[in-house]
Specification:
Oligomer: single chain
Strand content: 25-35%
Distance between the termini: 12 Å
Structural class: alpha+beta
Number of strands: 9
CATH class: Alpha Beta
Number of helices: 3
Helix content: 10-25%
Largest sheet: 7 strands, mixed
Order of helices and strands: EHEHEEEEEHEE
């Protein structure tokens, strides 16, 4: 890819249901759709595997956390390699017993995990009890050179609306695409 070619970035929007595995499966479908539409970098919503759980302090929600690498990154790295795309995914990371992060993982087009960003500013406001769940990040602000190049200009395009497959509990999602040149 030349530096003059635009890099298409898909920003996935999806409604998350109560079942993490169903959310992951739906996200994988949306990533596949975005790749078929020409996306080279696909970004998933924050904490896409679950509904937003930080509106209450409930110890049961810690069961939603997973290690990185783990089951979600395994599925995402496989799809990134298969489609030769970069994926940025936000996960509830369990780093160690009692240490949890809101983490964005960057997966390159060859399926390798390039790195992680652990959210550093953790809000604690009415209905946003993130400090109960997340430890502030410790990795700093980093950037990673991916196999997909991005320039400096961007324009937003909406991809066609996609209906929820029959029998699924999700509403329609509208992925967006950013062409970056």
């Amino acid at each position: 890819m030349s530096n003059n070619s635009p890099t298409q970035i898909a920003l996935v929007q999806m409604r998350c249901g109560p079942e993490p595995d169903a959310n992951l499966a739906y996200a994988l479908e949306l990533i596949d759709d975005a790749a078929k539409s020409g996306a080279e970098i696909v970004c998933l919503p924050e904490l896409f595997r679950s509904q937003y759980f930080c509106q209450s302090e409930n110890h049961d929600n810690f069961s939603l956390a997973e290690t990185i690498p783990g089951p979600s990154t395994e599925a995402l790295t496989k799809l990134a390699q298969e489609k030769s795309i970069v994926i940025v995914a936000s996960l509830f990371e369990k780093r160690a017993a009692g240490v949890y992060h809101n983490t964005a993982v960057v997966i390159d087009a060859d399926g390798n995990i390039l790195g992680k960003y652990r959210k550093m500013h953790i809000p604690d406001d009415p209905s946003y009890y993130e400090k109960f769940y997340f430890t502030p990040g410790d990795l700093g602000f980093q950037s990673w050179k991916t196999r997909r190049l991005a320039g400096t200009r961007a324009r937003r395009k909406n991809l066609a609306k996609r209906s929820t497959p029959p029998g699924k509990q999700f509403s329609a999602a509208t992925p967006s695409r950013m062409d970056v040149t």
